[in-house]
Amino acid sequence: MPHRVTSQAVAERAGVSRSAVSRVFTPGASVAPKTAAKVRKIAAEMGYRPNILARGLLTGRSRMIGLVVAYLDNQFYPGALEKLSSALEAQGYHVLIFMAAQTAENVEEVAEDILDYQIDGLILASVALSSNLAQRCRARGVPVVLFNRHQSDGELSVTSDNHAGGRLAARHLIARGARKIAHIAGWESASTQADREAGLMSELAAAGLHLHARAVGDFRPETARTAARQMFATQDPPDGVFVSNDYMAFPVMDVLRFEMGLRIPDDVAVIGFDDVPVASWPSYDLTTIRQDSTAMVDATVQSLLASINGAPPKPSLIPVTLIQRSSA
Questions:
Q1: Of 2, 154, 178, 263, which is most buried, counting CB atoms within 10 Å of its CB?
Q2: Phi, psi of 190, deg, nearest 5
Q3: Is pLDDT larger for residue 173 or for residue 107?
Q4: Is the fold of 61-159+293-317 the same as that of 162-291?
Q5: Mean pLDDT of 158-168
Q6: Does the structural domain 162-291 have CATH classification 3.30.70.270?
Q7: How far apart are CA 174 and CA 181, in angstroms?
Q8: What CATH number was assigned to the domain covering residues 61-159+293-317?
Q9: Which of 316, 314, 217 is nearest to 273 (CA)?
Q10: How far apart are CA 304 and CA 124, in angstroms?
């Protein structure tokens, strides 16, 4: 049977101590360049790779970050998660990605599993953090960052300024002449949804307007289609609609054009949220609120690494931008 090459074997062949081999493969450790080059050359010849899990037991640091995400259908998340993984790997960390449903019970089960890997930190992307899970993470010394969610209990979070995004959407619809403004909401338990709708409502109130109609799309295309059909199959349909994310806005636009026979933006203006790549395709050309995923990722990585090193939690709020296209 083939045997695993050990650090001791590499050390003996290189004529150095076992601790020197360990330092060569430990990010940030002090080792002479000449020694490092020699050890890496011999290690490559022998087929040696360090045991990261074993090193983590010795140092108390696994150099692994857990990442829990609820869904990847929305184009915003695959792009953001790819950036997160690249940014963390550039800092010498490896990422373990786990999928979870949007329920507190499922998130707890998944996060409990991921904690068994002795991770150095945990990122929850668009999923909630229960107080029970928060306590367990604190007890183990594992800092947690909420990505694209926030909670009111002082947890470390990185979000876009969703309230400002809702205000921008309403302001733009009003400026182009819409007065019967409707909203197709996402998942109502999400902080992002609550903030976007609150911003919309505050701007309508400031203009002396009321919300003309409301339906829930639950951040799901089929549910959003049904919501659009019901909302526009009335004697007094909206002339402007703010859809809580692009992923729902695309099927809403399809219903309005191909089922209802409405012209966008002549009969109804449509605004989304996220600015995923499809939003710029000529077939949609969707006016939307852009989330700066790069800035969100940078803030998440900086905050998580600072927290790993003992800094207190400090939430980050990332500005958003209105991207005007032909749908509004």
A1: 178
A2: -85, 135
A3: 173
A4: yes
A5: 97
A6: no
A7: 8
A8: 3.40.50.2300
A9: 217
A10: 12
Half-sphere exposure of 113 (CA within 13 A, CB side): 12
Residue 161 CA: distances (Å) to CA of 167, 268, 292, 315: 10, 26, 10, 12
- Could you tell me how far CA 132 lies from the centroid of its own chain? 22
Q: Determine the pLDDT at residue 104.
A: 55
The residue count of the chain comes to 328
Helices and strands, number each (H, E), in the chain: 12, 12
Residue type, 174: I
The pTM for the full model equals 0.81
The residue with tokens 């939003």 is 279
Classify strands 320-323 and 287-291 as parallel, antiparallel or unpaired. antiparallel
Q: Above 50 in pLDDT, residue 297? A: yes
Is the preceding omega at residue 265 within 30 degrees of 0, hence cis? Answer: yes
Residues 315/307, Cβ–Cβ less than 8 Å: no
Q: How far apart are CA 158 and CA 81, in angstroms?
A: 14
- Taking the mean position of all CA atoms in its chain, how far away is CA 156? 14
Other C-beta atoms closer than 10 Å to the C-beta of 116 total: 8
Backbone angles phi, psi at 154, to 5 degrees: 85, 10
Inform me whether the pLDDT recorded for 174 exceeds 90: yes
pLDDT tens digit string along 255-265? 999 999 999 99
